[in-house]
Amino acid sequence: MSALDELRQLRHGGGQVRKRDNKAAFWFLAPWFAGLVFITIGPVLASFGLGFTKYNLIQPPKFIGFDNFARIFSDERLHNALGVTFTYVFVSVPLQLACALVVALLLDRGMRGLAFYRSAFYLPSLLGSSVAIAVLWTQVFGTDGLVNRVLGAFGIEGKGWISDPDTALSTLIVLNVWTFGSPMVIFLAGLRQIPAVYYEAAAIDGASRWSQFWRITLPLLSPIVFFNLVLQIIHAFQSFTQAFVVSGGTGGPSDSTMFYTLYLYQQGFSRFDMGYASALAWFLLLIIAAFTAINFWAAKYWVFYDD
Amino acid sequence: MTTELSRTVGRRLSVPAKHIGLVLIGFVMLYPVLWMVVSSLRPGDEIFRSPGLILESLHAENYTEGWYALSPSFGTYLLNSAVLVLGCIVGNLVSCSMAAYAFARLHFSGKRWWFGIMLGTIMLPVHVIIVPQYVLFSQIGWVNTFLPLIVPKILATDAFFVFLMVQFIRGLPRELDEAARIDGCGHPRIFAQIILPLMKPALATTTIFTFIWTWNDFFTQLIYLTDPDMYTVPVALRSFVDSTVATSWGSQFAMSVVSIIPIFLAFLIGQRYLVKGIATTGGK
Amino acid sequence: MPRGVRRRGAAWAVLLSLTASLLAACGSGSDAGGDLTAEPVTLRFTWWGADDRHKRTQQVIEMFQKKHPNITIKGEFKEWNGYWDSLATTMAANDAPDIMQMDELYIASYAERGALLDLNESKKHLDTSNFDQKALATGAIDGKQYGLPVGLGMYSIMVNTDLLAKYGIPLPDDTKWSWDDLKKIGEQASKAGGGQVFGVQSPGINDTAGLSIRARQQGKAMFDAGGKVVLPPEIATQYWTYIQDLAKSGIAAPPSVTVEKASAGLNQSATATNTAVFGLWWNTQLTALTAASGAKLKLLRLPGETQGKAPGAYYKPSMFWSVSSRSKHPAEAAAFVSFLANDEEAAKVLLTERGVPANQKIRDAIASQLKETDKAAKEYLDTVPVSDPPRITPNGASTVDAILKRHTEDVLFGRTSPEQAATSFIKELQSEVDAAK
């Protein structure tokens, strides 16, 4: 390992005394600041304010104090939705990232037709949120779908997997894993950035390929793994479109695919209770922020930055 | 030059076996897509009565019928989506890379807080933001224009990409910009001449994702675009499907296929640039 | 920390201005009874539907613009879900379209929140003389006409006569059959179908009318005049027991198949895919279902209509034309609605795409142009006995279909008993109505 260590040491040699670049930062961040002030903050604060009101979208909001937030704790359908969402997040995110990483490694380089395979594997992600997905997913997991025909060939009688409350959520998890294209692309881009010089150094040291993966690829890819993990968790907590399209907006059968945001959406747009929906949104923000904070805290122990 | 895991795997398995494996996985993954393409060539009443992928009769009329099923015809929606996508890509590339440079390389007061706020902005579900935001944009008269969809991108509100680029920039060797700084370069030059060329994979990723997400985004486009002449592809595609009446699924699938072609091509072209990272350009 | 304070101050200013605009979103200046202007006027008109409806409606808009060159109508088409999202959002911003297609489930909820114009105010421009009073009443709340019914529909049984013939089962006599008769004949059909085809497409999903009719046949109702839920639990229990029996005895498909087909929309339903012999549908869906299934379908009267106290059947408006209470040009909007409802040329384009026209004169005027299936639907409407329509779905109960569906699924998958489902359904529905007050 000595050549590799030497290289690392070399790159981190020299103390860093830095002065602040407030002025430059301001200019680089100017568009973002403008967006924050003019586009983001107003609606965000408005939604926060509405959380304390009864607001049916047409008549003026009525202040009701903490009622909406209190209701969060007694709303049984919401608790079910939380359960559904947590299951979804903790099962589908690791599965999806693992698939994305393995396929990215396979499709990184070294064989013909890579461009084609990459594009083909990305194709499902292009469809993942389209309105056609409801029908397409029935073609896979429906009564007359692919899965049942394969099972039928083995003499096993299937069922409507999407329309059975015991399995509906699983089909959505598969749907999410199926659309692993986005994290795959990010992994691919990340792999491209690992300087070849590391592998050369490791080869000089005679490191096995397996140990190269653990000692070079994974640490150097860790910022990207971290990025994918953080974003996919946030994304999964907010997952909406797929459940909405596949269940026809109901979260059914029997609320088994009632994701948190789908429930929130129904409160706001079907029941015209935008006050409660806003309170729910801020509660979700707290949950997501907590998980993101844990992620950032844990990152100190496994994410390797070159700075 | 390369001795990576992927190569290892490639050597251990024989190459044909790898291809067969990938094709098999590919088939299972692409089954729904293939079914959609086949269905787009079936007469409407056969779609749900004949399962599987075997095409009994060719019914290419779905494509012409679908193209002219709505007024204006589908070309308008493709054009609108293209304009919108272009605006969003330019906006995201410029503004997000600037913000990312600041977060990744500059030291400034309250950086951690600002970064936290930026991440926080993607944690609120869109459904409670959309109403106040609509009120805001409708008061400045932007409803039924592309402005409410493009201007936020120009102003870097898509924190996903800022964060993505921050992660990439942090992965770049610092000696490069430090050397440039010693040579007397200011931040704008370091950003434009050193960082940007090196983060091509991240920029390509941003471009591809912005393209695809904008091309597919339904909710905000539905809310802000009211006049059919301004409708985009996803809004138009949904106008075929109404659960309360019969749906012309043949036309719908045909136009879905048509609408996937541009993003598929965009990906096919865009993914090349993912390959041209630091490792192959010899930037280090 | 002056900087922080200033920043926070700016944010609150934005918040206040947003709140102010939310508050300002009520109040209207209306001259619904005034004369039509000669100035150029632009009206926005929105509806939900699929491509066929969009085409026909756009054609009618052009016809109107030819007659009124100073009025421009901007047609905005959407599909069902997107339509309501978009309408709710634009309402909040005081930016709603002038004329809109309205549904029975939502009309009270929009009217009672003050979003709809009382069409009586613009009687001068809106001719309703060819509408049956019973039909008009379906769009009125407390004497205010918030919607003009477009088409009428009736709940019915649709039977696949091709399948009946194939199985050698005679057509039931629908003038006096009961729910038990439907079960019996369904059982015969299921046996003949051999697991591929089932007797009855299970009710219980998108079937609020079915439950309401059950109650009406026994002299009860879902809601009383004040909007209170008065559905007796026994009737709801009976309803879900029936559904449970159908599934358990194999008369209907297994639960997961039933839910899949019933949730997926018209084209994928059991009736459209020829996998059920009998199904509950609106009579106006005959044409679409016949096209989708490719089989011969026939409309039958509902079971139980003659055993109970009164016929449960009623005229349900397929949808309404409504005008926004904040429209700046209510008179012109009413004139356009009048054109949609009364113009014969327009009717010949629209035909029965939105249901059999509620306007009786129009119904007769287009009779010669109708397809066989449309004629059958019209004849059903003209001949089958009905009672007075039920009260409009009250404000807050717009989600009744979703609540019903969830309870049916709970029963079908054995997660609850029909008795529990009945009490829970009534309780939840009542709390929805209360919450909207």
From TrEMBL, chain A:
Spans through the membrane: 26-52, 86-107, 119-140, 168-191, 212-237, 277-298
CDD domains recorded: TM_PBP2 (cd06261)
Membrane topology listed for this record: Multi-pass membrane protein
Record has Transport as a keyword: yes
Subcellular location(s) per record: Cell membrane
InterPro entries recorded: ABC_transporter_permease (IPR051393), MetI-like (IPR000515), MetI-like_sf (IPR035906)
Domain ABC transmembrane type-1 span(s) in chain numbering: 82-295
Protein's UniProt keywords contain Zinc-finger: no
Family per similarity comment: Belongs to the binding-protein-dependent transport system permease family.
Family matches, as PANTHER family: ABC TRANSPORTER PERMEASE PROTEIN (PTHR30193), ABC TRANSPORTER PERMEASE PROTEIN YESP-RELATED (PTHR30193:SF1)
Record's protein name: Sugar ABC transporter permease
Species assigned in the record: Lentzea indica
TrEMBL record, chain B:
Transmembrane intervals: 20-38, 77-101, 113-137, 149-169, 190-215, 249-269
Pfam families, per the entry: BPD_transp_1
Family: Belongs to the binding-protein-dependent transport system permease family.
Record keywords, A-Z: Cell membrane, Membrane, Transmembrane, Transmembrane helix, Transport
Keyword Transmembrane: yes
Family annotation (PANTHER family): ABC TRANSPORTER PERMEASE PROTEIN MG189-RELATED-RELATED, ABC TRANSPORTER PERMEASE PROTEIN YESQ-RELATED
Matches recorded under InterPro entries: MetI-like, MetI-like_sf
Name of this chain's protein: Carbohydrate ABC transporter permease
Compartment list: Cell membrane
Protein origin, superkingdom: Bacteria
The keyword Magnesium is assigned to this record: no
Topological relation to the membrane, as annotated: Multi-pass membrane protein
Domain ABC transmembrane type-1: 78-270
Automatic annotation (TrEMBL), chain C:
Pfam families attached to this UniProt entry: SBP_bac_8 (PF13416)
UniProt keyword list: Signal
Superkingdom classification of source: Bacteria
InterPro entries for the chain: Bact_solute-bd_prot1 (IPR050490), SBP (IPR006059)
Organism of origin: Lentzea indica
Ranges in coiled-coil conformation: none
Name of the featured protein: Carbohydrate ABC transporter substrate-binding protein
Position of the signal peptide: 1-24
